[in-house]
Amino acid sequence: MSGSDSSGGFEVVGGAHGLEADLDDMDATGSRIRATGWDVGDTALDTHRFLVDGNLLRSAPLAPTTFARFEGSLVAALDGPEGLSVNAVRMVATGTFMQGKSKAYLATDRALEQADDLRQHLQGQLYGLGLAVAPVPTLLTTYLALEDAGALDDPATWITEHPDVLEEVVASSSGALDLFLPGSGFPSGTEDGAALLSLLYDQELGELTSETVDGTAAPQSLHDAMVLLEEAAGTTDGFRVERIGTGPDARYVVYLPGTKAFDGPFEPGGPLPDGLEESGLVQSLGTNFAAVGGVDNAYVTAVLRALGDLPEGSDVTLLGHSQGGIVAARVAEAVATAEDPPVRVRRVVTAGSPVDHVELPESVQVLSLVNEHDIVPRLDGEAVDDRSNHTTVLTRRQLGSVTDNHSVGRVYAPLAADLEASDDPRAQAAVDGLREVWGGGTSTTTFYEMGRP
């Protein structure tokens, strides 16, 4: 979906000022106009009975001129060119047209998205067919194309300059895999492919230990919260839950850092070189696959268990970077779909996370911070979508490396500060819902450490 705006070095897509929100407003306005039209029509219909009212008809011989004038005026008011009946029809027609137009726009947009998905799927199948039928020419053509584009001179820098290429490859990969698994229906998309890969890894949670510290500094802004999120990344296999305020007005913020190990799926202690064996950490590559694929994993399980320790009905904000952002979206999804959730997850903030494929209910407001030169948010193969409850803030910060472009301290914390300082209405709408979370002063923080069985 389109419907974006730029201001102060960033672009805001979706949210309260996005196209989907505008279409929702158009549909709601059309519904109100249509309903009012029916009400006006009912009033006009009921008023027609005065034309044949018995008392009025009996008085006609006594004042025929007045009677005729009254009847004429009432008929004109009810059925004339500007009468109630005509206006009722106009209102019903206008409301119906507005609702139809909003639905047509939305249907067109969804059709374009599906057409693009089909294109990418067929593109992947054609490439897979080339590998199957003529592998050497296909690989040689690919090599020459990459060499001509300059991708082989410095691949790491080149991919940060062309992250859309990575997104296209990921989106098309399901088509290539589907070619080699005909009729299986699996994997049929990025989620299914990630879910399949996650099965190679241990996804069980072992011990979850915690330590609570009082008197820690509470954030006063989203920027401050981003700084705390970067601090949380300094621990291994850990996350933190912060309580701001006390009593029924307390707010809880969960800080979820990203991946600690880009490991392989094989048992440790074997003949394989380092990097191909599982690290034994929860915040591992396997958790990335599981979170993207929507598969149960130890990180999501640990966070849900920690939320179970909070007072019932607590107001929770989830804040995650990279893998932590995907986990935040999946935790919010699990809470939203639970029959009797112990807490209320009202807000999710992600930084550098591939979460465009996760659709959360309208009750959850999502804010995603994305650097266009950060390749990690591209790994779900999904383009940024315009949703009324999901605001994406895009910036372009090229720091020269995959790691730096993905950094909280160098990219996403400064972006949060720019967002909060902006007077652009889109930017303000993006952070308005978060202002009630922060409050400064002191807070109580519980540090959680996860382990494998």
Automatic annotation (TrEMBL):
Superkingdom as given in the UniProt entry: Bacteria
Short name of any one Pfam family annotated for the protein: Lipase_3
Lineage: Bacteria, Bacillati, Actinomycetota, Actinomycetes, Propionibacteriales
Name assigned to this protein: Pimeloyl-ACP methyl ester carboxylesterase
Organism: Nocardioides perillae
Domain annotation Fungal lipase-type: ranges: 294-380
UniProt-listed SUPFAM superfamilies: alpha/beta-Hydrolases
Listed Gene3D superfamilies: alpha/beta hydrolase (3.40.50.1820)
Gene Ontology terms: biological process: lipid metabolic process
